Write the structure tokens for this entry.
Amino acid sequence: MEGRAQMNEGEDIIICRCEEVSRNTIEDTIEQGCDTLDSIKRRTRAGMGLCQGRTCQRLIAGLLRNKTGKPLEELKPPNFRPPFRPISLDLLAQEGYRLRKEDELRGDGK
Amino acid sequence: MGLRIKYHPILGEDLRKDVVSIEVDGRAIPAYEGEPIAAALIASDIKTLRKTKRIGEPRSLFCAKGVCTDCVMTVNGTPNIKTCITPVEKGMKIEKQEGLGKWREEPK
Amino acid sequence: METELAVIGSGPAGLSAAIEAAKFGVKVTVVDENPKPGGQLFKQIHKFFGAEKHKAGVRGIDIGNQLLQQCQDFNVDVLLNTEAWAIFDNGKALGLKRGTDKIEKLSTKKLVLATGAMENSLAFSGWTLPGVLGAGAIQTLMNLHRVLPGQRVLIVGTGNVGLIVSYQLIQAGAEVVAVIDILPKIGGWGVHASKIRRLGIPIFTSHTVKKATGNGEVKGAVIAKVGPGYKIIQETERELKVDTIGIAVGLTPMAELAWSAGCQFAHVPELGGWAPIHNERMETTLQDIYVVGDVCGIGEASTAMEEGQISGIAAAESLGYLKRGKTEELLEEKRKRLDTLRGGPFATHTKAGKGKLMKRYYKS
Amino acid sequence: MRTLRFNGVLSEEELMELPGFPSLDVIEKGKPVAVIECAEKIPCNPCEASCSQGAITIGEDINNLPSLDAYKCTGCGLCIAACPGLAIFVVRKAYTESDALISIPYEFLPLPEAGEQVEALDREGKKICLAKVAQVRNSKKYDRTPVVSFTVPKEKCMEVRHIRLL
């Protein structure tokens, strides 16, 4: 059941809602030889948007399985890297600066 | 507020009284303080919360738990705020976000 | 900040873990990105199944309140509006974002991941329109925030979530036009199906949603009957006038923190896909990291609470707050309860899935 | 197919096999009796504890189906609100000469009032006759699952399972 019945045949529909990547684009990419979630993501940006693939990953895995016959067990999600939630670089930089200052004050800054 | 559930057989009557006003694209909307921004907007029949960057499609609440990011809006000048889990505060200025949104020029 | 046990997620699993550990004196900090604790419990306004002795017949919302009270009683610290955006040092440190503008580091000795699940998507033409949303999202909006998503609703999926949300939509004053499922049989409990059937809601099995119609927002849904291979049978299409389409096609564990920490995973379809491998104490392949609830396999709130308690007890022991003999005794009782809750025919899949996960644990 | 798994409605054959379904001659006798329409092995047992007469048995394994001892059952209706699946009803066929009294869980607003005329619905939500509300019980013990009792013509008592307000 998994993946199989998650979309209807032959329609070009949006799969990745964040980056607005369509089914056709993803299927073309698979036909061109991309056979992992990671490579599809790099090529099409599907799964690279704000939600980080949480909404579309399963759908893409389903497309991949249908097209390539690869079992889902072989389709590992792409690497998850922090930040897992949107966070502004400004905020990160501020905190980094603060921590470094703290370290310097303690005298163990590297 | 036609979509508000005032009476409910299990939850009882909604007794919240702390109605505040928030501004959505220049229009004043009533909202309960502390409820998610998206809930207040949907209650006022504002369904489109943003337009996508490429096709300009309208989007709305989808997961309601801060994961899918389809409900992001510009709140008090900061874009990409997940309105499904961000509570309403009195006088908030909320804008429908176009694409990735714009940061206000000079942060206050 | 420092703590002994950090728990990510304040749903039934996370809170149960926190309370159980705190009972034995562990300093516990719970982190949740939501403004309110309870996870999905507070939208569960129906009475739960289960053993009479263990909160059966009590509504989810009331269980939620009981858990929050216990958190207070046992001095569990609950940090709300706090996102865990990074995990470092094999789970010994977390990057937190508090509110919109504060970053903080939380150091901990043990970590329980109770991050729950995410609703599965169903892609069809028009599924990005405002008015198409998760059935769980509908439940959150109406039962937690007391706002209806619309007036006329189509629910796609006859699992327990689809059936329960349909019933609750009627309770909240909306109309449910139909509940459909692509499979030939109803997925959820018969009693939940019967509850909505006698309200006059039709259930169409072997049906799919072909598209959402409407310009700018949902105005209708085209549904159709499917034949072999789930292919749409021509000329069975019909349009239902609805303003809301709720998608209830299952859940996937939301486990990126466990991935990122380096826990080993297994793909177990019975549990909703990729799930972190764990043992009977809910320990992952990384020492000091536990997983409980939906994040390690989609289940029920009742089983999530038992798993949470198990991890709390195990963590308390490894932190030196409990003796080995006593621990085993306590764990044995919880495991028995879990076994009972997974004893029926509907839980055979979950039980098998959990078996696979644990087998993998001992292999690794 | 008209079975629980295919359309959410228990067929007559399915009902007859349930250990919680009283035999038809008990119903025929006309005293109030619980009708437990619980057909799947759910890990659940509040109905058993709710019965002060010991008429409902589930036993050690809470996955067992509830079985009813119709002779012990007084038809008090406490199990109606206790059942998380809302699958228990009480039927009293010989309420009057012509009418049966049916009690159901009713978790909706507005609640009907005694004396009110309502539509009686079958297990598929189809209107099959009119009903008259006799009593609405909603004590704290029921925990927001009010129990509505109403009268319908005798011969409809094993079909009617819900009501709709007019």
In short: Chain D has a mean pLDDT of 96. Helices of chain D lie at 4-7, 12-17, 24-29, 46-50, 78-82. Strands of chain D lie at 33-36, 56-57, 67-68, 88-92, 99-105, 117-121, 127-137, 147-153, 162-165. The longest strand of chain D covers residues 127-137.
